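Before the break, one more example. Copy the sequence into your notebook; we will annotate it together after we see the structure.
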Amino acid sequence: ATIFLTVMNRLRQSASSAVCVSKMNQISGGIMMYTQENNGRLPTSPKYNTLFTGQGPWFNRDDRRLQQPIGEYLGSPESRTWSTQGSQMTFDPTFSWPQLIKEGQVGSPSIVLNASVDIRNGEEVKRRNPWTGERLGNIVEARKFPMFTEVDQKNTNAGWKSLLPPGPIHGKYRNTMFFDFHLERVPVK
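Here is what the structure looks like once it is written out:
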């Protein structure tokens, strides 16, 4: 019976990870399409010139939410609310993982955007936030920099940390999308 339960837990965890990978590929596909249609520039907020680092299935009309620039590519619903209360926000299933719903709280992000990459500007390379409308092609060694990763209480110190699952939702790794659009299972240290 113990072996059976262990096998079933591993199968559930593997299926949950597969759902996350599929949805992360959808999100990165939306980012890729946006970038292609916007002269190679990554999504940003026209009003605030950056995105929120925490992004998730609950969103509102604030243009710092990733659904605003890429939602049309994902088939995301249109939000009609400005509320920041999770229960009153619009829900986008593309950003929702099974374990997030099980272990997190309403309103919690599912991914955290990387806000620090090496950007080339002419001969100069500086560490910058890419979500300010930077050109994807200006990221130095894009394959080395995470674009976004699954978020939990152990890999953020944001004010919304308490809404998140207590640890990595897949146990020993986090699914992570890189700026060259490959996805890896990054081991938790």
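The chain has a mean pLDDT of 95. The beta strands are 54-55, 58-59, 90-91, 111-113, 117-121, 124-128, 146-150, 173-178, 183-187. Try to locate both features in your own notes.
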